[in-house]
Each structure stands twice: as C-alpha cells, then as structure tokens.
Description:
The protein is mostly helical. It contains 10 helices and 6 strands; from the N terminus they run ααααααβββββααααβ. A 3-stranded mixed β-sheet has the order 1-3-2, with helices on one face. Strands 5-4-6 form a 3-stranded antiparallel β-sheet, covered by helices on one side. The longest helix has 54 residues, at 3-56.
Amino acid sequence: MNFLQRWRHSTKHHGQLMHSRYCMWILVVTSCIVTVALVFLEFRTCRDDADGDRKNKRFERGMTEKEYTMLIPEDELHRVRKIIKKACKFRGWSGSPGDIEKAWLHATSAAKGVNGGSWSDHFVVEDLDESRLEKLCNMIDDVFLGGQLQKELYKRRVGRLKFSVDDDPRGQDDWISYFGEDSVIHFLRRKWSQSVSESQPMICEGILCHTRLQLLMHTLAHEMVHALVFHLLPDIDKASLAYLPDERHGPIFKLLNKRLFGHPTDSYKKLFGGF
C-alpha cells in the first residue's frame, strides 16, 4: 500500500470515528434533554395536582398536619413558615415535642413569679385581672416567640395587646375567650369559676390540664395566635380560605398553633362533665 492509499485509508477511518463520536454526543445530549423535559412535566403535574388539592379539598377537623398544610396556598405557606422560623431563631430552640414540653414547664413556673403575674395553680376567678393577664401574655411571648409578637405590634404602631374580663357573654356562642379586632383579648368571667383539678382535668388545645393556670395559659396562647395572624398577616386574616374556614381555625391557624405552642388541636373540653 503506497502513501496515498494509506492516507486515504487513515482519513476514512478517522472520519468514521469522528462520525461515531458525533452521533454518540447527539445521543447523550438528546437523552439529557428528554430527561429534563420529563422531570419538568412530572413537576408540573405534581404542582397541578397540589393546586387541584388546594382548590378541591376542604379543611376538616382531624386532618393531619401534612393534609391541612396542602390546603395552604404556596405564597401564604411561605410567609407563615417565615414567622415560625423567625420565632424559633429568637427563642433559641426548635419546636420539637421535647422542647415544647420543657418550655411549658418553664412558662408555668415563670407565671408564678412577679414578672409572670404571680399566679397560683388554682387561682380564683377574682384573680382574673387585666394587668396580671398582660404580664402572663408578655411572659408567654418571651418564652415561645422570643418577644416577637409584642415587638411586631410596636413596630406596626399597634401598641400592646389589651385584656378584658367580661360578665356579658356578648352573643349566643358559649365561649371561654376570644380575640377582638380592637386587639383586646376577652375572657368570660363565669367560665373561669369552675373547677380544674387532678380529678376534674380538662383538655385544652389537645393538652391535658390539671390546674386552672394551665388552662389559662394554653387558652391565652391560642388567642395570641389569632393576634399574630391579624397583625402580621392582615390580608390572610381578612380573606385567606386557609384561615377563614371554621371561624378562623383553619390550616394556617393550626400550623402556627402547633409549631409555636405545641397545640395539636384548637378546642377545649372537660373530661368529666361540661365546661
């Protein structure tokens, strides 16, 4: 084979090799494009399914956290999670069950001190005083929210939360407390005269309470969640379908109530007899 023949043979072989490599690269690139497209389509499908769930499903009592969180619009869920993250940062501990339990033990002890309002476990109804309730609220805010609620209220020029102990039930609902849009947390006096003890416990916010002080603290924390949403997320408080269902005890309320205060439910009942 002379030089010219060898050169032609080499060129032909090189061309075939380059063509083979070129085809291989085309195949690899095509496979990558197809894979990305499939992943994107799957993501869109999952997102559409999630959006469909949010639109079609309704909030029901007894839903798990995963189930009711799916009902919260993504933009609102992002804002709610920012509040939870900020609270955890300021208070210096996460929302694990162990941390929550320790925090409530600490808060119950602090409530009996001067800065917490000097409460006793089985206080009498005459002890329900606005100034003492304010101290108790501030202490709970410090322990569980790192003082975030009061700081945010002052930042928004709302001032402090106020309290009222009422004799008039103000309507047909048989309530124990409620948060008003005037930033006043109301307590119905006669409801706090009934006994709460080891033999007559109550379940409040899913927590077993053996003292009237425990009941008061968990009830107050419940109303603080309403205050938090009303002032920090006013558009959600006014119109979000994930907050308004069930008289403002929808998915957003449940998520904040659980993550901030460890409350798995938002109701109260006496184990033996009515309240």
